[in-house]
Design brief:
The structure holds 2 protein chains of 2 kinds.
Chain A: E1 7-11, E2 23-29, E3 32-39, H1 47-52, H2 59-63, H3 71-86, H4 92-121, H5 124-145, E4 154-155, E5 158-159, H6 167-190, H7 193-199, H8 207-212, H9 218-222, H10 229-232, H11 253-277, E6 285-287, E7 292-303, E8 306-317, E9 322-326, H12 330-343, E10 346-347, H13 351-358, H14 362-366
Antiparallel strand pairs in A: 1-2, 2-3, 3-10, 4-5, 7-8, 8-9
Helix pairs in contact in A: 3-4, 4-5, 4-11, 4-13, 5-6, 6-11, 11-13
Chain B: H1 3-13, E1 38-40, H2 50-54, E2 60-64, E3 76-81, H3 90-94, E4 100-103, E5 119-120, H4 122-125, E6 132-134, H5 136-140, E7 143-147
Antiparallel strand pairs in B: 1-4, 2-3, 3-5, 4-6
The chains are: A alpha+beta, B alpha+beta.
Chain lengths: 367, 156
């Protein structure tokens, strides 16, 4: 760091501005952050190794536990990868229900994110409305899957639970409720002049920069690159529904917020279309054998934070030989934060805002 | 201007609060299929230890209980550690005779200050702490008929 003396500040893991259980070592020159070093390890549990010691059906409960905000995509990705090994074809009904589950998870994650971004700039009031809307989604999950956060709903072979009777009405009611609340939060946050003044021009990433830093998801799309796995490499039935991929241009923190709020509306539209395709009474699951054939399974899903990939190697038998998880938050917390601090003047007050606008999930980096 | 935020805030100012006071005024949110504390039907359990083998948290072990259980010659029944259990419901799903079910008792209702009592002995598991919600039927009804795989051969 040269001969100059900098003030060293430890930021996190219990700081309210930190995005979760992760810490940063910051070098400060006045109130400007000149260097940030990420300190991981607070949540390291060794998921990949643990999954090697558990059977295919037990690993479902392991597969989603490293991202509280968005566990559904992780769970669906694991199920898709195991089905790839088994070469199993799941019922259409299960595919539609998985899409509803995934999109509900995305909406819940983005609503929770608006709580963080609101909190980081001091606009806590609209943020609480978003949490109320998320609560309604969690209740919906509790009704159809039995739990609020970790649902354990998509398992290799399809959907585990039978559908409740009034599933369609209940889902549409939740979608309407969330849509109204999300619009209110969007108006209150995005049209607020303080919010605009704090976020515009902050944490700017151009499309090429974002691509070279390895960014995916809403952060990449806010930089003007139209890349969404649901369109570019469709899985489940995403090629059978109509939706738009919101793309920004400026690539700053404000644009990321706009893209995320637009994504909420698109996700709700996907849920509406998928609910119509569900056939109550038809099977949701196929039986897979206890021992898998030898082979490899890969699944890529567009999670709320970006592209998530899981690669499983099976040598036959009841347990995977190797599980590899590609984290979606890894570039956000390492390369992107480093790059933004080296490129622009980031003050200590703006640092939590940049972190919140990237919406990383630290446990997903640690695992 | 911060006017849009203020206008929206007025709308929420006159609306009812969304939060619920738990447990003083309302119960924790429960549904008809929520996964909570287990119930063991000791007249059905055959002591096969499938629940023990399938538990991802390894919170089930098999203990011997004296008594007349003709279907269970070794008299081995599951004992569940509720402090470890993640309530994933795999034990209920994989029980071959449907002896385990789950109830609405969750969260603070299972909290305890004594470490010994987190072990739920088979005789304690007999009594349902709440309404029975999750049974094996819930999982089996999601299945299609037969085994479906496109190609039976492995990819190699």
């Amino acid at each position: 760091m040269g001969d100059r003396e900098y003030q060293v500040l430890y930021f996190g893991p219990q700081h309210p501005g930190a995005p979760g259980n992760i810490a940063f070592k910051l070098w400060l020159d006045g109130d400007r952050v000149v260097k940030a070093e990420v300190i991981p390890g607070f949540l390291h549990r060794g998921f990949e190794k643990m999954m090697e010691n558990r059977t295919w059906e037990m690993n479902v409960t392991m597969s989603y536990r490293f991202c509280v905000e968005d566990p559904d995509h992780l769970e669906i990705a694991y199920a898709l990868a195991v089905e790839d090994i088994y070469r199993a074809e799941i019922p259409e009904n299960a595919k539609w229900l998985r899409m509803i589950q995934a999109e509900m998870g995305r909406v819940a994650s983005h609503l929770f994110w608006s709580h963080f971004i609101g909190g980081s700039v001091g606009l806590r009031t609209p943020a609480y409305w978003a949490v109320a809307a998320r609560e309604e989604i969690l209740k919906w999950f509790a009704r159809i899957s039995g739990h609020r956060i970790y649902h354990n709903l998509s398992v290799p072979g399809g959907i585990r639970y039978a559908l409740p009777e009034n599933f369609k009405e209940e889902t549409l009611r939740v979608v309407n409720f969330v849509e109204e609340k999300a619009r209110d939060v969007e108006d209150a946050l995005l049209r607020n002049s303080i919010f605009k003044a704090r976020l515009r021009g902050l944490g700017k990433l151009s499309g090429e920069e974002a691509l070279s830093l390895g960014v995916t998801g809403p952060v990449l799309r806010a930089s003007g690159v139209k890349y969404d796995l649901r369109v570019n490499a469709p899985y489940l039935n995403y090629d059978k529904v109509r939706f738009e991929v919101p793309v920004g241009s400026a690539g700053d923190a404000y644009e990321r917020s706009v893209v995320r709020f637009k994504e909420i509306q698109q996700s709700l539209s996907i849920i509406r279309q998928s609910v119509e395709e569900l056939r109550p009474g038809e099977p949701l699951r196929v039986k897979l054998g206890l021992s898998a054939p030898a082979g490899e399974g890969v699944a890529r899903v567009e999670s709320a934070r970006g592209e998530y990939m899981i690669h499983i190697i099976s040598q036959g038998g009841r347990r995977p030989y190797r599980v590899r998880l590609k984290s979606m938050s890894m570039p956000l917390l390492t390369t992107v934060v480093d790059y933004l601090i080296s490129k622009e003047e980031v003050t200590i007050a703006d640092f939590p805002v940049i972190l919140a606008s990237l919406d990383p999930c630290p446990p997903d980096l640690d695992r | 201007m911060v006017l849009p935020t203020l206008i929206k805030s007025v709308k929420y100012l006159v609306s009812k609060p969304y939060t619920r006071i738990v447990p003083r005024k309302s119960q924790p949110f429960k549904t008809e299929s929520i996964r909570g504390a287990h119930v063991l039907d000791m007249l059905k359990c055959v002591g096969c230890s499938m629940c023990q083998q399938v538990c991802p948290a390894a919170c089930i072990d098999m203990v011997v209980v004296e008594g007349e259980y003709p279907q269970n010659p070794k008299k081995r029944f599951p004992r569940i550690d509720h402090s470890k259990c993640t309530f994933c419901g795999l034990c209920v799903e994989y029980c071959p005779v449907g002896a385990l079910t789950m109830t609405t008792a969750t969260g603070y209702e299972l909290f305890t200050t004594s470490k010994d009592s987190t072990f739920k002995e088979p005789l304690k598991l007999k009594e349902a702490l709440g309404k029975v919600t999750v049974t094996k039927d819930l999982f089996t009804s999601a299945y299609a008929q037969g085994v479906i795989t496109k190609e039976s051969s492995s990819r190699g």
